[in-house]
């Protein structure tokens, strides 16, 4: 689900990393087993995992929130989960109100389409995210995992504007 929301001063008092204002919110939910509270407090830490050894690096959430696209854009991540009931992840990106015009260099055609590199191992989730990104006109490069995403980025000879 996507929508535009206003995060107010009250919300920012509860979440010090949030500046009050208008945000584009992307919510992803599941009806899985949920995440216990003691794990929720660690899930954004690099290399924290509940998987057996050799079953992934578990850098995904720390890259998305701590060092990646959400925080660098001035955004915020909210997670609500209850064991046995599933999880709701909400990503908030600040709405940019100023339209920025860029002029192409002499003799160059202006590129109006952004390219997004999407890495997701869950096929159905990757398909949904890809469709959501492609609908407004993004070019989506899909990868099944981090290693494939890196290889795809090396082979792609044009600018990649965002990584999800």
Notes on the structure:
The protein is α/β, with parallel strands linked by helices and 164 residues long. It folds into two domains: 2-94, Histidine kinase-like ATPase, C-terminal domain (Heat Shock Protein 90), CATH 3.30.565; 115-163, 3-Layer(aba) Sandwich (Rossmann fold), CATH 3.40.50. It is 26% helix and 27% strand. It has helices at residues 9-14, 37-40, 60-66, 69-72, 123-134, 146-155, and strands at residues 2-7, 21-30, 76-82, 86-94, 115-119, 139-143, 162-163. The protein has a four-stranded antiparallel β-sheet. Strand 3 and strand 4 (86-94) form a beta hairpin. 8% of the residues are buried. The mean pLDDT is 78.
Shape annotation:
globular
The appropriate CATH architecture of the largest domain is: 2-Layer Sandwich
CATH topology of the largest domain: Heat Shock Protein 90
Helical run tally: 6
Provide the helix percentage. Answer: 25-40%
What is the CATH superfamily of the largest domain? Histidine kinase-like ATPase, C-terminal domain
User: How big is the Rg?
Assistant: 18 Å
Alpha-beta classification: alpha/beta
Residue share in β-strands: 25-35%
Give the CATH class of the largest domain: Alpha Beta
The number of domains: 2
On the 0 to 100 scale, the average pLDDT is: 78
Return residue spans where pLDDT drops below 50 for at least 5 consecutive residues.
none
- Helices and strands, in N-to-C order? EHEHHHEEEHEHE
Distance, first to last CA? 16 Å
The major sheet is characterized as: 4 strands, antiparallel
Q: Order of strands side by side in the largest beta sheet?
A: 1-2-4-3
| Overall strand count | 7
């Amino acid at each position: 689900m996507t929508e535009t929301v206003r995060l107010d001063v009250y919300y920012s008092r509860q979440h010090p990393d949030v500046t009050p204002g208008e945000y584009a919110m992307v919510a992803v939910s599941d009806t899985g087993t949920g995440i216990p509270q003691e794990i929720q407090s660690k899930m954004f830490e690099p290399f924290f995992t509940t998987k057996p050894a050799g079953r992934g690096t578990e850098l995904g959430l720390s890259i998305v929130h701590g060092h990646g696209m959400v925080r660098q854009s001035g955004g915020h991540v909210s997670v609500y989960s209850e064991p046995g009931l599933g999880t709701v992840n909400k990503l908030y990106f600040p709405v940019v109100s100023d339209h920025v015009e860029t002029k192409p260099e002499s003799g160059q055609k202006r590129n109006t389409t952004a390219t997004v590199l999407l890495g997701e191992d869950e096929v159905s989730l990757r398909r949904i995210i890809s469709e959501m990104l492609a609908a407004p006109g993004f070019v989506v490069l899909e990868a099944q995992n981090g290693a494939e995403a890196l290889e795809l980025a090396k082979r792609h000879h044009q600018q990649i504007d965002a990584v999800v």
